[in-house]
């Protein structure tokens, strides 16, 4: 499917009962794949209105795959964020567990189930902003405040979504630039997960366990791809990795007991003795948090772009109404950022990649898996014990490797189709390696839209705003935010 589809369009001229009127049982189709394709082609979710199972969508057993994958991924990401905050602010492990539970309950009940499941299934789930995790220490050192950051990030995100800026930026990103971005993210993520697993094996003096798990995972992934079942990679590879590690004697212990977190905002923000122990943010906190909020929102568009393209590459023709709407997703992420922080959470949110990527491969629309994912997250957050399994390296790293980063790498290579797109992709990768992927995306988009790289005829089909004004402002905002927080190599942070 072409990546030049219209973003943000709502099919108001289509019968609201289109899905239920056109649904056919799976037995009516020659194969399961054709049935899933048909479901994607007939779904017509209501935008910011009530969608009901049976009338507007159905649950299929394939929905369990992205639900499980998303749960594993989000536990790992939330744990990484809260551990970074705990280290930066001198908080204990109890803070980490309780805050992860807060984030899981809020995101699962209000946004996975309510928003993406029932109110707007074209808004992808609001998950975690992985590239911001390394920034946590900088935020604390600069005098930032998690609540101030959340309010600013949510406000900027809402402003961008209301003016449809997110979808505009995605439309201005060519296949070559997008392919280069996906290749870079996939390669860096894959190598990072491999190094993480090998490091875990070395730490427990059982390096052979990590090597054997990687070997088996490669074989399993290749086999699943060969038989057309690559969407099963996360549960199959992750479970196999955990079983192999356990059978070979790798150490594992349960630490997280059943329980419920404190959801009282006053506990988290009302005192310097409880919760975050920071109190309410001041004007100085907002000023210190400003560049990080700008940077986070600037990173949203390339993040959303990768997820939307993954759907386009795996969905059949005429499945436009099943694709995530970039602006609606941005609205959901913005509101989720503010609401989650109000309840005490510290997550920095973005489009939920560990859900969307396996959902796209499994050929499933958003709502069914979103409701299942939210339900699983609530159960896991209350029980506690499954959280320990999900963040065990043989499970977590293999799940992220097989379900997110390898598919990103493959998708990027598929988008680079000719010499023109390969040139844009190569420059994007080079710029991303030199600075970071946000800079790589922004600078390559500006060059590509003006015909300086890639397709020389591309500027002829774009307006002045699309060629210079919007890409130029995007690059300036990204550069300003990165200079302020010290993300440009060789240049110290201007802030502080």
List the helices and strands and how they pair.
Elements: H1 18-22, H2 32-42, H3 64-89, H4 93-119, H5 136-141, H6 146-162, H7 165-171, H8 175-203, H9 207-226, H10 233-247, H11 265-269, H12 283-314, H13 326-342, H14 353-361, H15 366-383, H16 385-390, H17 393-415, H18 419-434, H19 437-449, H20 464-485
Brief sketch in words of this structure:
InterPro entries: DUF3360. This protein has one domain.
Task: Characterise the protein shown here.
- The protein contains 20 helices and no strands.
- It is mainly α.
- The chain has one domain.
- Helix 8 packs antiparallel against helix 19 and helix 14 (353-361) crosses helix 17 (393-415).
- It is globular and about 60 Å long.
- Mean pLDDT is 89; it is low at 1-16.
Oligomer: single chain
Low-confidence parts:
1-16
Gyration radius over CA: 22 Å
Q: How is the biggest beta sheet arranged?
A: none
Number of alpha- plus pi-helical segments = 20
Distance between the termini: 47 Å
Domain tally:
1
Proportion of β residues?
under 5%
Question: Structural class of the secondary structure composition?
Answer: mainly alpha
């Amino acid at each position: 499917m072409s990546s030049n589809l219209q973003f943000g369009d709502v099919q108001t001229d289509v019968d609201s009962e289109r899905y239920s009127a056109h649904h056919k049982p799976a037995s009516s189709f020659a194969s399961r794949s054709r049935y899933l394709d048909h479901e994607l082609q007939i779904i017509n979710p209501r935008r910011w209105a009530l969608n009901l199972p049976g009338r507007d969508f159905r649950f299929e057993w394939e929905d369990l795959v992205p639900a499980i994958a998303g749960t594993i991924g989000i536990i790992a990401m939330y744990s990484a964020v809260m551990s970074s905050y705990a280290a930066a602010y001198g908080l204990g492990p109890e803070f980490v567990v309780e805050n992860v539970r807060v984030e899981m309950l809020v995101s699962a009940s209000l946004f996975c189930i309510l928003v993406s499941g029932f109110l707007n299934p074209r808004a992808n789930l609001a998950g975690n902003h992985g590239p911001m995790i390394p920034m946590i220490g900088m935020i604390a050192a600069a005098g930032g405040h998690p609540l101030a950051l959340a309010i600013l990030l949510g406000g900027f995100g809402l402003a961008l979504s209301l003016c449809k800026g997110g979808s505009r930026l995605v439309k201005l990103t060519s296949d070559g630039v997008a392919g280069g971005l996906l290749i870079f993210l996939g390669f860096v993520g894959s190598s990072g997960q491999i190094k993480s697993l090998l490091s875990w094996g070395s730490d427990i003096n059982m390096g052979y366990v990590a090597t054997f798990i990687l070997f088996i995972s490669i074989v399993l992934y290749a086999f699943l791809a060969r038989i057309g079942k690559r969407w099963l990679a996360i549960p199959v590879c992750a479970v196999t990795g955990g079983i192999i590690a356990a059978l070979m004697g790798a150490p594992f212990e349960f630490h997280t007991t059943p329980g419920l977190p404190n959801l009282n905002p006053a506990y988290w923000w009302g005192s310097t003795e409880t919760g975050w122990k920071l109190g309410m943010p001041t004007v100085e906190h907002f000023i210190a948090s400003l560049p990080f909020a700008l940077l986070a929102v600037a990173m949203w568009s390339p993040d959303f772009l990768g997820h939307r393209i993954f759907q386009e590459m795996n969905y059949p023709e005429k499945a436009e109404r099943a694709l995530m709407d970039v602006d609606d997703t941005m609205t959901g992420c913005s509101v989720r950022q503010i609401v989650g922080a109000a309840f005490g959470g510290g997550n920095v949110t973005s489009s939920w990649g560990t859900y969307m990527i396996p959902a796209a491969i499994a050929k499933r629309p958003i709502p069914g898996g979103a409701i299942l994912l939210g339900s699983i997250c609530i159960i896991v957050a209350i029980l506690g014990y499954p959280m320990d399994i999900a963040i065990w390296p043989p499970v977590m790293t293999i799940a992220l490797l097989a379900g997110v980063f390898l598919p990103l790498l493959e998708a990027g290579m598929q988008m680079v189709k000719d010499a023109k797109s390969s040139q844009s992709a190569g420059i994007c990768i080079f710029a991303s390696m030199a600075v970071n992927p946000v800079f790589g995306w922004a600078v390559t988009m500006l060059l590509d839209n003006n015909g300086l790289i890639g397709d020389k005829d591309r500027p002829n089909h774009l307006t002045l705003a699309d060629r210079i004004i919007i890409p130029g402002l995007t690059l300036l905002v990204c550069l300003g935010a990165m200079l302020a927080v010290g993300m440009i190599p060789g240049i110290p942070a201007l802030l502080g």
